[in-house]
């Protein structure tokens, strides 16, 4: 079974962001539903046991409730990705054009970590700290 908590994101160009998330973080497409014009209505991308759901901003009740990065002045949530090698993850994100907002650093308690923004401004925290493993230890 995967995670019981799944982040939901709204993008202006979900097709481009699906490709970016695959390239930068290694997400895999589980399912992508597009309308007749090729616009992403709903997508599920997986990474290990985790998942994000996303779609294009459109005139819907849910989209109207979601703000976009850059329009709010600050984000109100971010996703945290557990990776085995933060240096390799940083190189992939930089190669894919991600904006690094907090450089990679090492913390004795939290491991190696950095923070970046995707091309549409969503915030992603990436690090080697695995809270599931820490709780089991």
UniProtKB/TrEMBL annotation:
It comes from the Bacteria. Coiled coil: none annotated. It holds the Pfam family Glyoxalase. SUPFAM superfamilies: Glyoxalase/Bleomycin resistance protein/Dihydroxybiphenyl dioxygenase. Residues 1-129 form the VOC domain. PROSITE patterns: VOC. PANTHER family: BNAUNNG04460D PROTEIN-RELATED, VOC DOMAIN-CONTAINING PROTEIN. This is Glyoxalase. It comes from Verticiella sediminum.
